[in-house]
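Side project, low priority. Logging it here so it doesn't get lost.
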Amino acid sequence: MAMRRIFMGLFVLVAVPLGGCYTYTPLNLEEVSPLHEVRARVSLAEAERLEELVGRERRNPRMVEGIVAERSNETLSMDMSVASELAGARVQTFRQRVEIPVQSILEVERKELDRGRTLMLTGAVGAVLAAAVFALVIDEGGDATRPGGPIDLESRLPAGGW
């Protein structure tokens, strides 16, 4: 049971800060191209339309995130995440394509991996994992005995010395 708590704690330590590995860079709408992962702030009317269309409440309804599918002079087509499901050891994300009129987009930011933060987080997680393994492996008793009794170093040295 203690082992399970340790691994759950490690999972939380790893999973929670992973969102901090990304930064958002402001873009002009003309710079947005397909396959960019973006966050867009939309008008209130568009936010209400999208909430009704997608059928899911968001923390900030005026901020929409997704992967750009197409961009034209009139609309921005995005694949928005609408649900996630744990499938074995991986998370499967379900997306819905929505079209957002360009005039209702107030600002756009590109989501990018921050290599510095990711490297620091990876190092910190590695240190925590190493400490956890060290704590699990080291014998808490420290009496230098084996199941067969204490270790006799003299009987292990070759006859005649070194």
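Brief comment: Residues 34 and 69 are 5 Å apart (CA to CA).
Revisit when time allows.
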